[in-house]
Amino acid sequence: MIYLDNAATEKPDKKYINAAEKYLLEEYFNPSALYKSGYKLHLELKEARRNILTRIANENNFSLVFTSGGTEADNQAIFCGGRRGNVVTTYGEHSAVFSAVNELKQRGLEVRFANLNSDGSMDIENLLSLVDEKTSLVSVIHVNNETGAVNDIFSIAEKVKEKNKYTLFHSDGVQAFGKISFRLTDNIDLYSINAHKIGGVKGCGALLKKKNLQIKPYVYGGGQEQGLRSGTENVFAIKCFEGAAVDRYLRLDESFKKVTVLNNTMRRLLDGGLFTVLSSENASPYILCVAVKGVRGETVLHEADDNGLIIGTGSACSSNLKKRYSRVILACGVDDVTADGVLRLSFSPNNTFDEVETAADILNKIVSNRKRIMA
Amino acid sequence: MEKVIIIRYSELHLKGKNRGWFERVFAVNMEKSLKGIKHEIHRHSGRYLIENFDESDIQLICDKLKKVFGIHSYSVALKVSTDMEEMFNAAEKVSFKEGSFKVETHRADKSFPLNSMQISAEIGGKLLDANEKLKVDVHNPQFIINIDLRENGTALVFNEFFKGAGGMPVGTSGKGLLLISGGIDSPVAGYMIAKRGMVLDGIHFHSYPYTNMQAKEKVIELAKTLSAYTCGMNLHIVSVTHIQEEIHKKCNGDFMVTLLRRFMMRLAEKVVEKCGAQCLITGESLAQVASQTVEGMTSSNSVIKCLPVLRPLCGFDKDEIIERSRLIGTYEISIQPYEDCCTVFLPKHPVTRPKMAEVLAEEAKLDVDNLLNEALSTLEIIKI
Q1: Is residue B138 assigned to a domain?
Q2: For burial by CB atoms within 10 Å, which of B13, B45, B248, B377 has the most?
Q3: B302 CB near a chain A CB, below 8 Å?
Q4: What percent of chain A has pLDDT over 90?
Q5: CB spacing of A318 vs B343 below 8 angstroms
């Protein structure tokens, strides 16, 4: 089986799971408990927090709140950051942000959406024109999860702050963390990351928060995570997350180079007469978005699956035409027919060149055969 | 004072010499639906009693009984001896704490010294004496206390009739094969025919890889919901992918649905032979969509040699069908947005009133027998 849907989730690394298994079976204590065994886990969490945080930020300026995943981190940022005036975001956001801001809209806040460029990156001028003195929050995805387009959130955040220094800036970094090189600057207030996209286990993520930034909690209860995210911490998942993050950043450049070659190989091997590449040259190499005209993406997905190749698709199956196409792909200005045939190939450093070659071969065969039938 | 459930059946009493057979099938169906729950079912003249169950299971038993066809109504009753004091105690238990009431007595045991009117009057009088917040209103009472004196020296006391599913016991009207899609209509069609006593099998057509596993899963869920009424069913699943591809390749695209329906009917007829059904059931409703015109039905029906095709929804409006699907619990499943095979290769302008000559000319471009055999080789049977 060849797995090229790593942007959906990556295969968890046994190494991290084995190392953290003791937190499930032996050191099962509540990290908030006052006895020594509990306190020890509190210290373990503190270490994990520091080890994850310092991969991308300065611990003097940022703190980290563990959450149940990227979606919760995004929801916390949106609902706790966007409390008044208007909220500005883009048409290229993941549903975790997109649906959350739409809920804010229902609750009476004004939400403004910035347009996308054809590669899925955001139109900076358009976004800045939407920010004004009443903007309480701007949220821009760091690496687009469908096209891989990388937004320069640092320069955008700086410009946003020039326009309104009180505006909070959030970014969903789920497809960036552990994959591309960056450090959070002081202009970023909130940043969401996730464990299972880098080889950790599902159900674990984090929200990085500028120190001294006062936001209200999103989940109330026993006051864990500096009072911002109550609920007993999942020590096992967090320790796996820590292991994965430390490991990923040790090999960040090496992995990036390898995945870049995998991505370029795939671009080269896919038959140009059958596939249109939608991802730009500057996109994250971890994601390659292509489209097949005239064949539904999902059909290709199923046939690839039957041939031992797992890939993603840009369009969810729905008889409701409005819902069928990815809203992000449509916002890139792609026509309906192309949007119907979108495929997302996403890589991990563990993929091999042989796998990419075989995958390209399978896809070329399937699509040319399908095109013949559908003609 | 034991709690029992009284089951009254619908049309069975109209049956003549074969009434015993109807009653036996009915009892077996009730047993099937209560499988795994502690209970005993006893037949008394004109009704059944469910006894010896745990009181905590009453709601569960009633929920199951609501789905058994043949039940006209049921009541949860207290079973006591025909001693006046005991009957009064039971009446007091089922009585509301306040409001207007009347007592209605039925006396199967004609040897009992008091007649029905006298029993009602005496128990009613005692209830009035015992609770001053009660008053009698024989014309518009807020509740009725029913006392049913049976021949065997027992009395059943209850205050409410619950409506059953009605219809005839499943298994008394033969067996049919339901063409089930993922939509709203076909499960309702199946329900309506099962209600008249027919055992159902289902047949579903899919177009993987053009449709997905979730679409199939949805049909299995629909069949499961329906099978609560039909005492189980077998679901036959057939791929029509290649048939659709061949029609797409060789025929006028506007005839896609018309031709595909003829294939589906032929495949269903073949499966009927295998599963021992005696008719086909479809969810077609006259004029609902392009293919459900009388001309469309003529075209699809003409491939069937000698089976009746039942279309119980023909006279229904869409909102009537939706209302029924909500009642039987299939609506929420049906509206999940997964495509079934019909929407793949959907023409922009489907033929709405196909002429037989044209249909036959288009179909002549295909190797029908081969396509049917090939499709049948994909047959998968799921026991629901």
Answers
A1: yes
A2: B248
A3: no
A4: 86
A5: no
Q: What are chain A's domains? A: 2-9+252-374 (3.90.1150.10), 14-249 (3.40.640.10)
A40 Cα distance to chain centroid: 32
pLDDT given at position A225: 93
Quick: pLDDT tens for B108-134.
888 888 999 999 999 999 999 999 999
Give the start-end residues of each E strand in chain A: 2-3, 62-67, 86-90, 110-114, 135-139, 168-172, 190-194, 205-210, 275-277, 287-292, 309-310, 312-313, 342-346
Q: What is the pTM of this model?
A: 0.82
Claim to verify: residue B252 and residue B115 sit in the same structural domain: no
Q: Which of A299, A305, A306 comes nearest B210 by C-beta?
A: A299
Q: Which of residues 322-381 of B touch A (CB under 8 A)?
A: 337-339, 343
Best of A323, A340, A373 to disrupt the B interface (most B CBs within 10 Å) is A373
pLDDT the model gives residue A319: 41
Residue A7's pLDDT is 94
* Residues of chain B contacting A300 with CB distance shorter than 8 Å: 209
| A319/B contact by beta carbon, under 8 A | yes
CB contact under 8 A, B212 and A302: yes
Mean pLDDT of A271-296: 94
- Per the structure, how many domains does chain B have? 2
B/e letters for A51-69, b = 16+ CB within 10 Å, e = fewer, are bbbebbbeeeebbbbbbbb
Nearest to A67 by CA among A207, A216, A255, A220: A207
Q: How many CB atoms lie within 10 A of CB A106?
A: 9
pLDDT at B190: 97
Q: Residue A14: its pLDDT value, please? A: 94
Q: Which of the residues in chain B have pLDDT under 50? A: none
Establish if A234 touches chain B: CB-CB under 8 angstroms: no
Q: Per the domain annotation, does B57 fall within a domain?
A: yes
Question: CA–CA separation, A176 vs A159, rounded Å?
Answer: 21
Which H or E run contains B248? Answer: helix B241-250
Contacting residues of A for B342, CB less than 8 Å apart:
none
Tell me the C-alpha distance between A280 and A288, whole Å: 9
Instruction: Say yes or no: B284 and B231 in one domain.
Output: yes
- Please tell me the predicted confidence (pLDDT) of residue A337: 81
| Mutate which: B181, B239, B339, B348, vs A, most A CBs within 10 A | B339
* The pair of three-digit structure tokens given for residue B334, joined into one six-digit string: 């049906």
- What is residue A112's predicted lDDT score, i.e. its pLDDT? 97
